[in-house]
Specification:
By secondary structure, the protein is of the alpha+beta class. Helix content is 15%, strand content 26%.
Length: 160
């Protein structure tokens, strides 16, 4: 079994942010490795976690293509293991809340529709918890240059 956490602007996925802003936050997180332009996983020794950054439509539907990243992110999905008493849920939820706070977004449990972190005005990014250095075994790929609309504004209708 897996736990899913959805970080989004609102229930209509009405706003997006430049991918470079999201990847900058995730690249600075201890215990994460970038596995593709829009995907992350846990580093060795950390609870199992997968993260997907995606552009999406108003229903939250998205697709991920290896080797490609959207110019703007409308949803961040965190997937962690529910095995062994869910040791990865609390750290994944804490990370989801930090991402949501950075962009003024919310965190939803899509299985229960429970709002775990309400949307609020964006704040300074809370510091990641202090952790011992992690040996990175996979080199992160550089993110594509951000383009499009200014930070924090919604992408034009029909634009991923």
């Amino acid at each position: 079994m897996y736990w899913y956490l959805t970080v989004r602007s609102d229930d209509h996925y009405g706003a997006s942010v430049p991918t470079a802003e999201v990847t900058a936050l995730l690249d600075a997180e201890p215990g994460l490795l970038r596995t593709d332009l829009a995907c992350y996983r846990q580093a060795e020794g950390h609870p199992w976690l997968q993260i997907v950054l995606a552009a999406c439509d108003a229903g939250g539907n998205y697709a991920v293509q290896p080797g490609r990243a959207p110019q703007r992110v409308g949803v961040v999905e965190l997937i962690c293991s529910a095995a062994d008493g869910s040791p990865g849920y609390d750290p994944a939820l804490a990370l989801a809340r930090r991402l949501a706070a950075a962009f003024g977004w919310e965190v939803l449990d899509p299985d229960t529709d429970e709002l775990l972190h309400p949307a609020a005005p964006a704040t300074a990014v809370p510091a990641a918890p202090t952790a011992p250095p992690v040996s990175r075994t996979a080199a992160p790929r550089p993110a594509p240059a951000a383009a499009g609309t200014p930070s924090g504004s919604a992408a034009p209708a029909g634009t991923p």
